[in-house]
Structures are given as C-alpha cells and as structure tokens.
Amino acid sequence: MAKNPLFTGTGVALITPFRKQETIDFSKLEELINNIIDSKVDYIVALGTTSEAATMTDSERNALQQFIVETVNGRIPIMLGVGGNNTRAVTDAISQTNFDGISGILSVTPYYNKPQQRGLVQHFKNIADASPVPVVLYNVPGRTSCNITAETTIQLAHECPNIIGIKEASGNLSQVMEIVRNKPAGFLVISGDDALTLPMIALGASGVISVIANAYPKEMSDMVRLALKGDMKKAQPIHYSLLPLMNAIFEEGNPSGIKALLEILGRINNQLRLPLCKVSKPLYNKIASLQLP
Asked: CB-based burial of residue 220 (10 Å sphere; 0-12 exposed, 13-18 middle, 19+ buried)?
C-alpha cells in the first residue's frame, strides 16, 4: 500500500467563526479557508473537534460541510469528521452523508462508554465497511477517556484496507513508536498535537492535523514539509518559534485559545458556543504577547 498523498503533510483542523449572535460567519470562514489554501497547506479537516461541531444542529453541520466543499472547490482534499459512541448511529450517519468533494473521514474513538479494545476493533471495522472513502482513526484519550492501543491500531491497519491511518493525540511517544514500527507500508501516523509534530515526524509520522495552522498555516506547513524531507536544521527554528504559542492556545482548552489568537490577528470575532467560553484575560494577553512578528 503506497503512502496516501492526500493526507500526508499538514492538515488544518478548521475552526468555525461565529457572529455575536452565535450564527456561523460564513464570510469570515471563506477568508480563513482561502488564506489557509494560499499558504500551501495540504488538506483541511472539516467538522472536527476544533470546529465545535458538537454544538451544532444537523442542518448547521450540513450547511457548513456544503460551504466548505464549495469554497475549497477541489483545490485541496477535505477530511470530514464523522464519529461518535454509538456504532450504528455513526454508520447510519455515513450512509446519509453526501461525500461529493470529501476525500476521507476522521472518526474519533468512542467516548464516555469506555469500550474494550475488541469493541473498538468491531466499531471501526463497521465504520470502514460503511464508508465509501478512506478512514483515519482519531485517538485522543484526553477527550474520550478511551485509548486505542498500539496493538489495536496495528490490527485494524492490517485487517481493514479502508483504514489508512491514525491521528495520534495520546501524547504517548512510546505508543507512537510501536505503531510506526509495526504498521503496514503506507499506513499514515498523523500527529494530533502541534507541539509533538516535529519529534513525531522524526520518529516516522506522516504529518499533522494542526490547530495552530488556522493562524499560521504557512509557518506550520513549511516546518512539516522541511521535516518530512529530513531537513531538521531548518525545521527546528520554525518549531521553536511556534512552540510557546502552541502551548499557550491549549492552556484553557481548544478552540478557545486558537479563537483568541485569530481575533488578535484580526481574522474572526472571538465567539464560542457554550459550554465553551473565551479564555481568561491573563491568557488572552499572554497569547497576544506571543504572536509572531
């Protein structure tokens, strides 16, 4: 299996700009998407965690997906977030999804009900069978309270041709190395943590699904591109220039931090939907002091 070029490099976990009335600000979203694409990122992730999709109605999610597909207009691939903790509901959602303009899906580990590893295997096999496009697993135990072990990832990678990679946000580099060491050729290991992207690429990862790239798409994609070429001498300074911001925007949760940064940069209104709220004033000031010159 050849490495999938669609999802190698830098993907952007796209935020959703809101107006003060909490309606979707499509004009700001269009500007954001065009800036991201002009900055040479490799793909966009729509309706992921960073988008606040969990706070949207079905009609809002459908409208957002359609708008993103139309705005991107085939210029780069789009990965669509489709996941949940009810396997049948996820496969039903897949069957009802319009995949025009969508190159793959990102499916998060089931949250709250804490399934066994054998339950995760069956969950993702059902999703892989139902999906007409390639599937990337999303392991983020800090949000789901459920870790996909390296053994489970490797099993799924070998047994399900339609599962082409994993977004690893466990923060466990030993687990990442175990996956890289035992994965089939071409299976993608994608960083789900901006700050760990450079070391993960050094270990064999294929790139990142990035939050900071909403604000600094060129810098992040340049760093990833250099690292994937093995030019760590040039990649490291970019990594270290972004590192304080990468850490700061997550201090009070995502996407609260990145939305504060984007407002500071003059690109969106700093508006979120409950239960999320704006970062504290001290953190806002800290983020402002760390923005790149």
From this structure: buried
225 Cα distance to chain centroid: 17
Segments of the chain with pLDDT less than 70 = 1-4
Q: What is the pLDDT of residues 45-87, one digit of tens each?
A: 999 999 999 999 999 999 999 999 999 999 999 999 999 999 9
Would you please indicate which residues are annotated as catalytic (active-site) residues? 138, 167
Per DSSP bridges, beta strands 104-108 and 78-81 are parallel
Query: Rounded to an integer, what distance in angstroms lies between the CA atom of residue 138 and that of residue 109?
Result: 6
Q: Residue 230: which residues within 8 A CB-CB, separation 6 or more?
A: none
**CATH homologous superfamily of domain 5-229?**
Aldolase class I (3.20.20.70)
User: Where are the chain's structural domains?
Assistant: 5-229
**Rg (alpha carbons) of the chain, rounded to whole number:** 18
User: What 8-state DSSP symbol labels residue 184?
Assistant: P
